[in-house]
Amino acid sequence: MTLAACLFRISEQESTFRRRGFAPGDAAKQARMERVGATFILGYNAGLDSRSPADLCSRLNAVQDQWRGFAFEGAAMSLTLLDELTPWRGRRLSQFLNGPGEPHAYMLHVGAGWVYARLPWLRWQPERAIERLDPLLRWLAIDGFGFHEGYFSWRRVIDETRVPFGISGYAGRAFDQGLGRSIWFGACADPERVRAAIYPFPVARQGDLWSGVGLACAYAGGHTEQDLDDLLDLCGDHHPELAQGASFAAKARLRAGNPDVDTERACRAFCGMSAEDAAGITDASLGALPADATIPAYEFWRQRVQREFVTRGKKCAV
Q1: Which residues, 6+ apart, have CB-to-CB distance to 65 below 8 Å?
Q2: Pick from 129, 193, 216, 279: CA 20 to 30 A from residue 242's CA?
């Protein structure tokens, strides 16, 4: 075991509902949410102890397809942490992203954002921190920041709807997208609990929260057919955001080659099409995006995808 692994290793117990203070829910759903967290931690610990990008990728690829993306996400956290703490060797994440981890680029950007929540010099200026990442996908790191805060500090950022110091402008919207993902976990994939968590937020924030819920529901799964119907009813006017989140989840899984039946089921319910076709909409919406300005290209991309679902209605025939 390396020195870094000895110093920074995380116990799988950190992913339990009991440890996080989440209210218990349906036993099967809770077990699934806890397994996602445990797989993230497995990947994180592997990143601390890996000898090379190839060695790390080999370890992560040993994880079952359904869960593998979460292991890559965790590995990105540890690689980013090591990059920040040993800047003279700070190319671990970029080498992994540009090498064997490339198919998991979405999850790697999200995982990097967990470190932004942990280290003060990143937490206070997250928009500067993401400048070193992919120009389009870098906002996923702020999304990861938001998930981290919802997962570890939910009483402050969800119950009290507070935004951390240092988050402003579009970063606040990306933060909320990740916060919405965390709500799916903290609510134990229960649609009524999801709605109850989102309802107190200002209306202007709710669309991004529902987008995050759609992504987490489709990627992490844990839902029933009735849950999907209930989410469609409970999201109000935010069906396009819910569908856009699901389509991003489909794209992340398609790119990584780890499809999942829950992603397929969520895309058919929210998007009215297969996961592969929903992922195709995200690709078709990438053409000729404008340069980053007050509204970044990433948000124009999301808006284009959402517009594809505006006219499709809520309960699309499939």
Answers
A1: 257, 258, 259, 260
A2: 129
Cβ partners under 8 Å of residue 51, min gap 6: none
- The tens digit of pLDDT for each residue in 222-264 reads 999 999 999 999 999 999 999 999 999 999 999 999 999 999 9
* pLDDT for position 5: 60
Which string of DSSP letters, residue by residue, matches 215-279? Answer: HHHHHH----HHHHHHHHHHTTT-HHHHHHHHHHHHHHHHHHT---HHHHHHHHHHTSS-HHHHH
Domain ranges of the chain: 3-119+127-310
CB atoms within 10 A of CB 268: 19
Burial of 263 from C-beta contacts in 10 A (0-12 / 13-18 / 19+): buried
Query: Rounded CA gap, 125 and 120, in Å?
Result: 9
Q: Give the end-to-end CA distance of the chain in Å, rounded to a whole number.
A: 51
Q: Which of 111, 103, 69 is nearest to 221 (CA)?
A: 69
Of the CA atoms within 13 Å of residue 78, those in its CB half-sphere come to 26
Q: How far is CA 226 from CA 102, 229, 243, in A?
A: 35, 5, 17
Residue 248 is which amino acid? F
Q: How many CA atoms lie within 13 A of 268 on its CB side?
A: 11
